[in-house]
UniProtKB/TrEMBL annotation, chain A:
This is Ras-related protein Rab-21. GO terms for molecular function: GTP binding; GTPase activity. Belongs to the small GTPase superfamily. Rab family. Residues 176-188 have a biased composition (Low complexity). The keyword Membrane applies. Keywords: GTP-binding, Lipoprotein, Membrane, Nucleotide-binding, Prenylation, Protein transport, Transport. It is a lipid-anchor.
Automatic annotation (TrEMBL), chain B:
Residues 91-110, 116-138, 202-221, 603-648 are annotated as: Disordered. Pfam families: VPS9. GO terms for cellular component: cytosol; endocytic vesicle. Coiled coil: none annotated. PANTHER family: RAB GDP/GTP EXCHANGE FACTOR (PTHR23101), VPS9 DOMAIN-CONTAINING PROTEIN 1 (PTHR23101:SF98). This is Uncharacterized protein. Residues 91-108 have a biased composition (Polar residues). Residues 623-636 have a biased composition (Acidic residues). It comes from Paramuricea clavata. One of its GO terms (molecular function) is guanyl-nucleotide exchange factor activity. One of its GO terms (biological process) is vesicle-mediated transport. InterPro entries: VPS9, Vps9-like, VPS9_dom_sf.
Length: 212, 648
């Protein structure tokens, strides 16, 4: 878990209603490279992935969350300390997009601008049944400082891209906060303090908004 | 002319012998006085003689011997006095007594050839090994003077035995016997004086060395941490302990050799673990002492609370008993036993705790009151807040203690500062630290979480016969066949068993591992099930997303019937560093907490929950479940969500 120099370790939460296919997205992303190899961890609910972005070693741990409303009130403990969030909606389901909006609000409320957001419209293979207006979604994402991407887990389209985009954004954000004098090893093994909750990094907000 | 000296000598020798007999019989006061009167007598004779004739005439072998006797008597008397004072303080002995004695004893060697020395004298053999034993059990260094004295006692007894034998052998020649006795007496004195002398010299050089070493270690500490005046008090304490550790290490060969090993293999994690375990297994090690002192401090705090809150604790114990008779009770018993042992070892003085625990368990047996009856007045709101504050303080205390001990380890062993080394170090320190404290700590958590646990007990009881289906586990993960076969255990039984083993572990990290295993077993369980049906282990049916995991876990937790999971999870969250909680461990714990919170929120709705079984219609769920949740659109995703992978 140590954040050694030149290595980045990020936590990503995966949000979205149960029907939008977030599990498929993340499984597609993590399984593809090791197609025949069986996943040994908690299957689709907790997955890890290693990336190399411009020579920087990036480790992602992806936390699936429950989309069901009865567990919703308990979500915030999942978000704690996360660097990024992937909010998935189904382009054929307007309601799932409204849910995404709720989550964005909640995440910003709890984590402030400290978290990089990526809104994903899944199931673009069902484009003909589209119920969420693409331009509207794009505009919304912009207004909340989030990236907006389209993907299809089924066709394996846009999956790698969305994780890569998010990872890049998180690297940029961490670098920015590090150069802003915030300790980059916030979660470093050396400073093993439990009380390190999210520190509101006001000055870091600006560049992050731009890149997310 | 010389006859007066000779006469004096024989009288003196006899008298000295008497005093030595007193001495060997531990009649210190008599021996002391006798020695002193010998001196007075000899001095008197010498003075009178010297007064009567020329001084140079006084110089003869007899006077030399008399002087030697005097000095020996003086020395012995001094020793008696200093030992009787308390534990002798050798450094107080005035140094001038050494010089004259030495001269005389050297003279003596020329005058008297060393007579038959008792061969069984242990002295030489002993002095060959002044270094401490190279075993982990460090023994306190034996003082050289003590050693010498013990050696002398041996000499004396050997001498006495010899004299007795002699008396039997020689019956006729009186003259020979007398001279023999005198010479033997004197050689004995000389030998003893020499022993003491050598020991004193050794002691002195040892002390000098010690002082030098202290100085060197201090410098070493300065080098590592900067001079004292620049440090905060906290760092100064750390520095003090550091110096102590360095000092301790000088006396313990095994530590030095371990350090050498570490130097050659700084990344060897088993070695690091071994070293930490060894250090913490050694009571006298300053680091261990430091750890113990914190442990004792926290333990004292905790016991006083346990005492106060005995009612609630008794009640909590009953709660567990009622809800789940067999396993639960066994677990509590076990933990009590281990608790007693561990702590009695650490706090010999604090015998109170054992009693408290004993009383507690007897009360458990005596008053079995239904959980719901007393609960209301047991814990007032203010009390609960108060306990919460206490808990917060203790948590802080524990954290800072662990941090200090951990940082001390890193200070003492620079090699541990790699990320892996640090983690290992912390894990080992925590393990040692928490094991004896955990039951008490958990008690406090359970007091604070009393209401929650009580609620859970109810919910557990009402849902004990629940199937996975009742808890909205998707059909494909209900593992139905297993139930219908009748004889086979209930679904996810292996997961329930694993979770129940959680109570056995005594440190947060071990418990966390158990939580992770529990989560993994769920996946395994599902895979085993589908494998037995001829499907590959990673088929779409076995995919478990968070949406599936939470209901399954709800089922498992209800089956486990462990209300204290709330407290255990709380404690884990408090004591396990955030770094650990980034990965799978953190995910597992978070999932557990989520499910526990969900189960708690079910209060008063269990009936509805069971209705779900019969109805099996998700539209019904909406109306039944929404009381506690603000959002209205409940579970509508459920029917569609059952196979998230189908779209691929």
């Amino acid at each position: 878990m140590a954040s050694v120099a030149g290595r980045y370790q990020f936590k990503i939460v995966l949000l979205g209603e149960g029907c939008v296919g977030k599990t498929s997205l993340v499984l597609r992303y993590c399984q593809d490279k090791f197609n025949d190899k069986h996943l040994t961890t908690l299957q689709a609910s907790y997955l890890t992935k290693k990336l190399n972005i411009d020579g920087k070693r990036v480790g992602l741990s992806i936390w699936d969350t429950a989309g069901q409303e009865r567990f919703h009130a308990l979500g915030p403990i999942y978000y704690r300390d996360s660097n990024g969030a992937i909010l998935v909606y189904d382009i054929t389901d307007e309601d799932s997009f409204q849910k995404v909006k709720n989550w964005v609000k909640e995440l910003r409320k709890i984590l402030g601008d400290d978290i990089c957001l990526c809104i994903v419209g899944n199931k673009i293979d069902l484009e003909r049944d589209r119920h969420v207006d693409g331009a509207e979604a794009e505009a919304y994402a912009k207004s909340v400082g989030a990236k907006h991407l389209l993907a299809s887990a089924k066709l394996n389209k846009g999956v790698d891209e969305l994780f890569l985009e998010l990872a890049k954004a998180m690297v940029t954000a961490q670098d920015a906060s590090a150069s802003n004098g915030q300790s980059s090893g916030r979660r470093g093994a050396s400073s093993r303090k439990r009380g390190v909750e999210i520190v509101d990094e006001q000055p870091a907000g600006q560049p992050k908004k731009g890149c997310c | 002319m010389e006859s007066s000296f000779t006469a004096c000598l024989s009288i003196a020798v006899r008298s000295v012998r008497e005093s030595m007999i007193f001495d060997s019989e531990n009649r210190h006061k008599e021996a002391f006085c006798q020695y002193l009167s010998n001196i007075i007598y000899i001095c008197g004779v010498l003075k009178d003689e010297a007064w009567q004739r020329e001084l140079k005439d006084c110089h003869c072998p007899e006077t030399v011997k008399l002087f030697k006797l005097t000095s020996q008597c003086l020395e012995r008397a001094q020793d008696i006095l200093s030992t009787s004072q308390d534990n002798l303080d050798i450094s107080n002995v005035p140094p001038q007594s050494i010089t004259p004695t030495r001269k005389i004893s050297q003279d003596q060697t020329t005058l008297l050839p060393p007579p038959v020395t008792p061969t069984q004298s242990p002295m030489p053999a002993r002095q060959i090994h002044p270094s401490p034993p190279a075993s982990p059990n460090f023994r306190k260094r034996v003082q050289y003077i003590d050693e010498a004295r013990r050696g002398n006692t041996h000499l004396l007894s050997a001498y006495r035995a010899r004299m007795e034998r002699r008396e039997k052998q020689i019956t006729d020649s009186n003259v020979r016997r007398k001279t023999d006795v005198t010479s033997m007496n004197l050689s004995l004195f000389r030998k003893m004086a020499e022993n003491i002398e050598v020991a004193k010299a050794r002691q002195k050089s040892l002390e000098r060395k010690k002082a030098e070493r202290q100085q060197r270690l201090q410098e070493e500490a300065d080098r590592r941490m900067g001079p004292s005046f620049l440090l905060t008090t906290h760092d100064q304490i750390r520095k003090e302990i550091y110096v102590k550790v360095l000092e301790f290490e000088q006396d313990s060969m095994w530590l030095v050799s371990l350090r050498d090993q570490l130097n050659s293999k700084p990344d060897d994690s088993t070695l690091i673990q071994h070293i930490i375990n060894k250090v913490l297994g050694t009571r006298e090690h300053p680091l261990t002492k430091c750890l113990y002192s914190y442990q004792v401090e926290i333990h004292t705090q905790l016991t006083s609370i346990t005492e106060q809150a005995r009612d609630i604790l008794t009640h909590i114990a009953i709660m567990g008993k009622n809800s789940c008779q067999n396993e639960q009770q066994n677990e509590t018993d076990e933990s009590e036993i281990s608790f007693g042992e561990e702590l009695n070892e650490i706090l010999e003085s604090n015998s109170k705790t054992g009693e408290t625990e004993g009383k507690l368990s007897t009360e458990q047996d005596l008053c079995i009151v239904p959980a719901s009856e007393i609960s209301a007045d047991l814990l007032s709101e203010e009390k609960e807040l108060e306990y919460k504050k206490i808990l917060e303080n203790i948590v802080k205390n524990v954290e800072s203690s662990l941090e200090i001990v951990h940082s001390l380890f890193l200070l003492v062993y620079e090699e541990f500062s790699s990320a892996a080394g640090q983690d290992l170090c912390l894990a080992t320190v925590e393990f040692t630290f928490f094991r004896p404290l955990w039951p008490l700590l958990l008690n406090l958590y359970r007091i604070v979480n009393y209401r929650k646990e009580e609620r859970l007990v109810k919910i557990f009881a009402e849902n004990i016969s629940c199937t996975p289906k009742c808890l909205n586990v998707p059909d494909r993960l209900c593992l139905y066949e297993q139930i219908s076969e009748g004889e086979t255990p209930a679904p996810y039984q292996s997961v329930v068993d694993e979770l129940q083993s959680l109570t056995k572990f005594g440190s947060p990290l071990e418990k966390l591992e158990c939580i992770v295993r529990t989560n993994r077993f769920i996946v395994e369980c599902v895979e085993d099930y589908y494998e037995s049906k001829g499907k590959p282990r990673n088929s779409p049916e076995t995919v478990i997303g968070c949406d599936d995991l939470l209901p399954i876990l709800s089922y498992v937790i209800i089956r486990s019937q462990l209300p204290q999971l709330v407290s255990e999870c709380n404690a884990m969250e408090d004591f396990i560093s955030a770094d650990y909680l980034m990965g799978e461990e953190g995910y597992s714990l978070t999932t557990f907490q989520t499910v526990l919170a969900y189960l708690e929120s079910l209060q008063g709705e269990q009936e509805q929950l069971q209705e779900e079984t019969e109805e099996q219609k998700h539209s019904e769920n909406e109306s039944s479940q929404d009381d506690s949740l603000p959002e209205q659109d409940l579970l509508q995703d459920e029917p569609i969500q059952q196979d998230p992978n189908s779209q691929e």
